[in-house]
Amino acid sequence: MTMESPGRARDPLAVFSRKALAKNSLLNLVGFAVPLLVGVLTIPLVIRGFGVERFGLLALGWAIVGYFSLFDLGIGRAITQLVSERLDKSSDQDVVQLAWTGLSAMAVFAVIGAIITGAFAPWVVSSVLKIPETLRVEAAQAFIILSAAIPAVVLSAGFSGLLAAVQRFDLVNILRIPTGIMVFLVPLAVLPFSSNVIYVCAGLLIVRVASLVLHIVVCLRAFPALRAHLGVSSAEIRTLLSFGGWITVTNIVGPFMMYLDRFVIGVALSVSAVAYYVTPYEIVSRLWVIPVAVVAGLFPAFAAAKEKDLNQTATLFSMGGRAVLMILAPIVLLLIIFAEEGFRLWLGDNFAQESTVVLQWLAIGVYVNSYAQVPFSLVQGVGRADITAKLHLLELPIYIFLMYSLLGRLGIVGVAIAGVVRIVLDAALLTLVAHRLVKGVAVASRQIFPVLVVPLILFAIGMTLHGVFVKALFIGFAFVVVIVLGYFFATTPEERCAIRRAAQRALGI
Fold first, then answer.
1. What value does the mean pLDDT take over residues 185-189?
2. How many degrees, rounded to 5, is the angle at CA 131 between CA 127 and CA 137?
C-alpha cells in the first residue's frame, strides 16, 4: 500500500470533489461514532461502579491529557497544512523531511509538557481542586500517570495529521476506532478488581502507547518514503514554528476555554458537580464527530487551494456548513426535547434533575460551534492561523467574566450558558473574517444562514415544553420544518435535481 506520490500534480478541487468530501466525511464519522456508541453504553456502568466523585476525577484526568496535548505547539496542524500544500510541487525527500522535522519537534515539546504536567499534579490536587481528603493521594498519582501519556497522544496526532494530509482517512479511522473504544472499556476492565482510578489511568497509558506504535507502523507501511528519507532540517523547524506558533496560541487558549469550565466547577463547587456537568458534556460533545468528520476533509482542501483561485473554496465552504447543520439539527432537537426523560431512563432522577438544563444549553453550543468549525478551518487552511489565535485571545476574558458571573447565580447551568455566549461570538467573528479573506464566502454564508437560525428557534421552543405528548407533537412539526428547510434552502438547484433523480430511481419511476 502506498500513498499518492508527493511530487504528483493535482487539482485541489478535483481531489476534494463532493464525492471525495462525502467519502472522507463518512469515514471520519464512522471513526468517531463507533467509540461514541461504546461510550453511551459504558458510562452509566462506570459511574455506578466508581461512584460520582471518582468519575469526576476520571473526567478531570481525561481533560488534563486532552488539554496538555497543546504541547505539540501547533506543529501537528502545521504538518497537515504544509504537506497538503507541497504535495503538487515538491519531491518526496522534501515532503518527508518536513514530516520528520515536525514529528521530532513534537516529541521534544511533548516530553517537556509531560514533565511539567506531572510535576504540578500534586499541587493542583492539594491546593486548587476541591477533592475530598481521602481521594487526594489517589488523584495525584493518577494525574501523574496520565501526564506520561501526553507524548504518545501528541505524536499519534502528528502521524494522523500526516495521513490526513495525503487523504488516507481510511487508515486514520482504522487507528482511531480501537483507541477510542478502549478509553471506555479500560475502566470497565479494571472495575471487577478495583475501584481505584490509578489502575484505570495506568491502563489508559498503555492504550495510548500501543496506539502510537500502531500509528508509526501504519505510516511507515503506507508512506514508504518515510523510511527512505530520515532526517530533520533547521529551516523546516522555522517554517513549522512560524505557522504553528499562532496555532499554538489557538491550541492553548481554545482548549483552555473548552476545559476551563470543569476545572472552575471543581474549584468553586465539588467533584460531584463536575460529574453532573461533565456527563451531559460528554454526551453532546460526541456530536462533534459530525463537524470533525467533514472539516477533516475540508482543511486539506483549503490548504491545497491556498495559492490557487480562492473563490472556488466558497463552494466547499457552503457544502461543508450546510452538511454539518442539516445532519445535526434533528439530533440536537431530540436531545433538547427529551433530555429529562433520557436522563431518568439512563442515569436516574438525580442526573435528570441536575443535568437536564445543562445538556440543553450545551447541545445548542455544540450546534453553533459545529458550524464555526467550517470558517475556522478555512481561515487556518489559507494560512491565517494568526487570526484564529487573536480571536481566541479576544474571547477569553469575556468568557471568564461571563462564567464567573453566571456560576454564582445559576451554578453549573450558568457555566453552560456562558459557554454558549462565547461560542456564538466566536462563530460570528470567524464568519466575518472568512468573508474578508475569500471572495464568495459571503454568498455561501447566505445559503447557510437559514439552516443555522431556524433550528435555533426550534431548540429554544423545545426547551420550554413539558409532557411527553406535547413534546412528541412538536418533534413531528419540527422535523417537517427541518425537511422543508433542508430541501428548499439548504440545497442548490443542482443538488435538488440530484435528490429528485435519486428519489425517482428509488421509487422505480
1. 90
2. 80
